[in-house]
Design brief:
The chain has 441 residues and is α+β, with helices and mostly antiparallel strands. It has three domains: 117 residues, no CATH class; 71 residues, no CATH class; 144 residues, 2-Layer Sandwich (TATA-Binding Protein). Helices cover 19% and strands 39% of the residues. It contains eight helices and 26 strands. Strands 12, 13, 14, 15, 16, 17, 18, 19 and 20 form a nine-stranded antiparallel sheet that branches. Strands 2-1-4-6-7-8-3-5 form an eight-stranded mixed sheet. The radius of gyration is 28 Å and the shape is globular. The N and C termini lie far apart (110 Å).
Length: 441
């Protein structure tokens, strides 16, 4: 009897064991923690479009050297030439980079006598990020350096193409010993500038138009905006722990804080973290910054999910622009928006520490793709622009056309201006445009 009982018990144990094995093999165990930590963000519907790092890196301008001391400049808004040249260069390969002193070549002479293209970036770009835009050999000793300019030109002496990457430290250049570019390729790129506006040298290496430029349009752009509720949902706040100040503009959950300013059009968010050891890595921070924007509101788009807005990795306005400060400059119709001190608009500003976002600021305005009341306006050039730049109050590192925004009740007025970036990193408006002759007010 005892032996029979043992047999029955053993049979039951085997059955239970087989059943448990079945559950382990074919069921989906619940592995998520029942209580989310304070670092988890609420997953919400995306508000704007997402971007990749490579979408946010592109030259601020292309300087075209035509030979015989003739030059012109293409900006992202110079369509289709800017895009044609950039796309052709993105398909080329640059290999076997060798470092040399920047003084090994007389660049002023190269610019005067040789045909070529300069790709100038709005901030130093690490090789590791630049490789997401161009096919650059990464197997070399100095791949951790950063680049702010690429110069491709044809050498008259040897009937060949030379390609140089300029280190942002101003001391070194890297020549690509192997680049699948022919003389005819460069001549083709340069040919796009034969009939474009003529530019001349100002200062050391800035190019300004010889004559006023009448290719810019002012316009009125309808807009929508993100709401405070949408932003709160996108920034983790647990409704049970959020406190709202009576004014309705400030929210916090004991650790993180969100502030809505400027009549509901500007967001400031902070998430303080304990200091960590080690230096910040720009590449790590840029990748983390892009991911953060993608997950928390996305990049500005219009009400239809598309639009004319895009962003570029740029210098911050803070003269002390270390690797922890990341700024993305907003472009509308391929023209950067520079708001000056009148209002906060036209950029996303972030501070990161070892890939973690500690502060985040952005506009809540979404510009529509449709515009109205377009008018042709003229930007100064020649001696008038030269005099303006001489009184800019600092060393000018870049000159570019931009839009100055002016917010009305239901629309944004964008007016063309000349803007400069100083050696300190500060971006400022230096010259207004006027209505072109024959344009109705």
């Amino acid at each position: 009897m005892i032996e029979k009982g043992k047999s029955v018990l053993l049979f039951l144990l085997v059955v239970v064991s087989l059943y448990q094995s079945y559950l382990l093999a074919y069921s989906k165990p619940f592995l998520e923690a029942k209580v989310k930590t304070e670092l988890d963000y609420v997953k919400t519907e995306p508000l704007g479009t997402e971007s990749e790092v490579k979408d946010l890196i592109f030259p601020e301008q292309l300087v075209v050297h035509l030979g015989e001391d003739r030059h012109t400049v293409f900006y992202p808004s110079t369509v289709p030439y800017y895009n044609l040249i950039l796309e052709k260069l993105r398909s080329r390969e640059f290999k076997s980079l060798q470092r040399d002193s920047i003084r090994s070549v007389d660049w002023d002479q190269i610019a005067r006598e040789n045909q070529g293209i300069e790709l100038r970036f709005g901030r130093a770009i690490p090789f590791e990020l630049l490789q997401r835009l161009f096919k650059i050999d990464g197997d070399f000793l100095f791949s951790r350096d950063s680049i702010d300019r690429i110069w491709i030109y044809t050498s008259k002496l040897r009937d060949e193409v030379r390609t140089y990457f300029f280190s942002s430290d101003g001391r070194n250049v890297y020549e690509a010993q192997k680049a699948d570019l022919a003389v005819l390729d460069v001549e083709g790129y340069v040919g796009f500038g034969q009939y474009w506006d003529s530019y001349v040298v100002f200062g050391e290496e800035i190019y300004i138009p010889e004559h006023p430029v009448s290719r810019m349009l002012s316009m009125e752009v309808p807009y929508d905006r993100y709401t405070a509720e949408q932003m709160q949902d996108n920034f983790l706040f647990d409704a049970s722990s959020v406190r709202a100040i009576p004014s309705g503009a400030f929210y916090n959950d004991a650790k993180r804080a969100m502030k809505i300013e400027q009549e509901g059009t500007w967001l400031s968010y902070t998430d303080p973290i304990a200091p960590t050891e080690g230096a910040d890595e720009l590449v790590e921070n840029v990748i983390a910054a892009v991911s953060f924007v993608n997950q928390h509101g996305g990049w500005n788009s219009d009400q239809n999910g598309g639009g004319n807005s895009k962003y570029a990795l740029a210098h911050g306005n803070d003269p002390v622009d270390n690797n922890g400060n990341i700024r993305f400059q907003q472009y509308y119709r391929d023209v950067p928006i520079v708001s000056g001190t009148a209002m906060n608009f036209g950029y996303i500003q972030m501070t990161l520490q070892r890939g973690l976002v500690t502060s985040y600021a952005r506009s809540l305005i979404m510009l529509d793709r449709e515009v109205v009341n377009k008018k042709v306006r003229k930007l100064p050039g020649g001696s008038e622009l030269r005099a303006i730049l001489e009184s800019a109050g600092g060393k000018v590192e870049a000159l570019f056309p931009a839009f100055r925004p002016e917010k009305k009740e239901d629309k944004m007025i964008l007016t063309p201006v000349w803007a400069v970036r100083l050696a300190s990193g500060e971006v400022m408006i230096v010259a207004d445009s006027i209505l072109a002759e024959g344009t109705k007010k």
